[in-house]
Amino acid sequence: MTITDRDRKALQLLGGALLIMGVIYFWPDGAATAAGPMDADSPVLVEQRLDRVRRMMLQVPDKEAALKAAQTDLAAREKGLLQADTAPQAQAQLFQILRRVGRSLPQPVEIRANEIGQAKSFGDDYGEVSVAVTFECGIEQLVNFLAELGAQPELLATSDLRVGFAREKDKILPVRLTVSGVVARKLIPEKKGMQF
């Protein structure tokens, strides 16, 4: 078998290509990492991570103090929640507060009728119960009643107030008042059925 000039040139090219591939494959790793990205365990990166952790650790006492202040403020505000085991019990408590406020006035207001409203959610963490009451009183008594209601420690709000025409002789007004109170979210029943 004879080797032609063409075969000799092809073998020379193949030998040169193998030599170049061998150099690339067996080249030492130290030279490639010096020019490439830093290793995750390099001293520079470890020091940067340590500095970042130290800065975060210095912020912890400030954040703990802010958290403690927020928790104290929340506890003080939540003292005004109506405390009950169920929503109807909270509504009964709200009705009792209205009766107590009406009786505590210099000229007492007698709460005569009530209507229980639907318990509903109030934001993500609380619920709202409401009671509508009717009574008759003078305008001064109504103003005093609303002022005394606003001074109660419970979280209460007037959600509806309807005042009828006064009787001419004694100037007594028929009043329908709806008052809402804030309760814990666990007292509000979950809505069942299809929700969109």
Q: How do the strands and helices of this protein lay out in sequence?
A:
Elements: H1 5-26, H2 29-35, H3 43-78, H4 87-104, E1 113-116, E2 120-122, E3 126-137, H5 139-150, E4 156-163, E5 173-184
Antiparallel strand pairs: 1-3, 2-3, 3-5, 4-5
Question: In words, what does this structure look like?
Answer:
48% of the residues lie in helices and 20% in strands. With 196 residues, the protein is an alpha+beta fold. It folds into 2 domains: 37-77; 87-187, Ribosomal protein S6/Translation elongation factor EF1B (Alpha-Beta Plaits, 2-Layer Sandwich), CATH 3.30.70.60. Strands 1, 2, 3, 4 and 5 form a 5-stranded antiparallel β-sheet that branches. Strand 2 (120-122) and strand 3 form a beta hairpin. It is rod-shaped, with a radius of gyration of 40 Å.
**How many helices does DSSP assign?**
5
CATH top level label of the largest domain:
Alpha Beta
How many domain modules? 2
Q: How many whole angstroms does the radius of gyration measure?
A: 40 Å
Largest sheet: 5 strands, antiparallel
Structural class: alpha+beta
Approximately what portion of the residues adopt beta-strand conformation? 15-25%
Give the integer mean of the pLDDT values.
Answer: 83
Low-confidence region ranges = none
Q: CATH superfamily of the largest domain, called what?
A: Ribosomal protein S6/Translation elongation factor EF1B
Q: What form results from the Cα inertia axes? A: rod-shaped
What's the total number of strands? 5
CATH topology of the largest domain: Alpha-Beta Plaits
Q: Quote the distance from N terminus to C terminus.
A: 85 Å
User: What CATH architecture label of the largest domain applies?
Assistant: 2-Layer Sandwich
Helical proportion, percent range: 40-55%
Assembly annotation = single chain
The string of secondary-structure elements, in order, is HHHHEEEHEE
